[in-house]
Amino acid sequence: MAERYTVRTVPGPVQSIERAAAILRLLDRGSGQLGVSEIADSLDLARGTTHGILRTLRGVGFVEQDNLTGKYQLGVVLRDLGTSSLDGNELRSLASNWADTLAARSRETVRVGAPGRGHVLVVHHVFRPDDSPQALDVGALLPLHATALGKSLLAGDAHLMAALTHQPLERFTPRTVVDHDALAVTLPAIRRAGWAGEYGEMTLEEASLAAPIRGPGGLVVGAISVSGPVDRICDSRGRHRDALVDQVRAAAHAISRELEAPRP
User: HSE (CB half, 13 Å, CA atoms) of 214?
Assistant: First the structure.
């Protein structure tokens, strides 16, 4: 008599739970409150989906809604949750292979950054593959408003932008955007495009472009960028080269998939 074997499959992650967790982590990042649109934009979710998850979280006491503003914050049950960010070492470990590959393909400097102390904290840095003098930037703090890394983070985290509005923006070059409203206007386009760029805003002769790295549920936990001389990053019209945009976005998506994969 033939033996029968039962094949058991291991269920994958539940998307709605991942999204709920991402909302909680986003709310835990700042001391203020966020509206449905701000949360949806930060996590790249539909507003209806976001509202449904928030309604459920409110029903179990995980979030609270302000009766006057309609905005949400962590509920008293989760005020001390402490899940605001991914460990920088973990992000560096997961991103390093993809960053190395991006540097080899683009022939430019590659950095991986995460939010840190109101700036971009560089957690990984791959030198441009040539013999030019270069200094290691790991541990450096870069401005959010004048770098492609920072703009990618601002577009994916409403708390970061809100915190930035309470401090003056430093001008590094004549091209640096130092008006808060002008900076905020650019963020929806960055979210739609899936990448951010800058041209001479941090250093006149250099340009960079970056794409966000998302964890489970769509939470932006970091960004990856390429940077170099303007004439190599941009074309004659000052537009970031399409091939580099594709390479950076592909690297960001690959790292995001690593972060979303179930851990053993």
Answer: 24
Cα 11 to Cα 8, 18, 158, 167, 262: the distances in Å are 9, 14, 33, 47, 10
Structure tokens at 199: 């041209």
Q: What is the rounded distance in angstroms from the CA atom of residue 165 to the CA atom of residue 134? A: 33
* Phi and psi at residue 226, to the nearest 5°: -120, 145
Single out the residue of 131, 183, 137 nearest to residue 162, CA to CA.
Answer: 183
Q: What is the band of 264 on the pLDDT scale with cuts at 50, 70, 90?
A: very low
Within a 10 A sphere around the Cβ of 106, how many other Cβ atoms?
24
Q: How far is CA 260 from CA 6, 15, 19, 155, 215, in A?
A: 29, 10, 11, 20, 6
pLDDT exceeds 70 at position 31: no
